[in-house]
Specification:
- This protein has 256 residues and is α/β, with parallel strands linked by helices.
- The chain is 33% helix and 29% strand.
- The chain has 9 helices and 12 strands.
- The chain has helices at residues 43-50, 73-79, 95-99, 115-127, 143-157, 173-190, 201-207, 225-228, 231-238; strands spanning 3-14, 17-28, 32-36, 58-63, 66-67, 80-83, 161-165, 193-197, 210-214, 220-224, 242-247, 250-255.
- Strands 6-7-8-3-9-10 form a 6-stranded mixed beta sheet, with helices on both faces.
- It is globular and about 50 Å long.
Amino acid sequence: MSSLLTVRGLAVAVGGRTVVRGLDLELAAGERLAILGRNGAGKTTLLHTLAGLREPAAGRIDLCGAELAQTPPRRVAQLRGVLLQQQVDAFPASVLETALIGRHPWLKRWAWESAADARIARAALAAVDLAGFAARDVQTLSGGERQRLAIATLLTQQPRLALLDEPLSHLDLNHQIAALQLLSRTAQETGTALVMVMHDPGLAARYCDRALLVHGDGRVESGSGADMFTAERLSALYQHPLRMIETDGRRCFLPL
């Protein structure tokens, strides 16, 4: 199985501190990788580096078999989608217009979005329970509604690799589960590979088959969910004792 994302010897530094050292990673189509770690451990910085938004301190990142740093920006935007922690809406726009931003990497210069593009965007809005919001001003949305719109915009882009920084931010429990089910279904049906920074290890264990643990001092651990989602590893990661409870084949983690 060919890799959509290949990382070799990656080092990531921020503020003079190395937060990731010697990371090797391969992610294939349809795989779902959770990035876990304490606040300030470097999860977002790592995600931005994997996305090509900042330079690594060392190492190489390949996207779909080509070196990310040497791939033209337009092609990167077609292959790789990013959901950032915070959404900034500097100008008034409708919900549909905002979702259609996801189609921009696929448009020719000076071209307008087509009816087919609009159908893709409307389907993505419906998938995140925003079907009736197309004409709404994006600046009138609640935080949770705006987050769901960000997910819809990413789905509208239809990338082969999606990197999401805290995709559950601002979402209530119902929409957290709905969003993770939607993303997992997209990975299964389209082969999109997912990399998600997450805070809840129980949800990560439920919806991700791989995990990358970032300790913040350069140490990283990566592997299958079965190996990474354990009370011992997560207690060491968060520096707080956790107890694992398994029910119906699902793992939950409770702080002691």
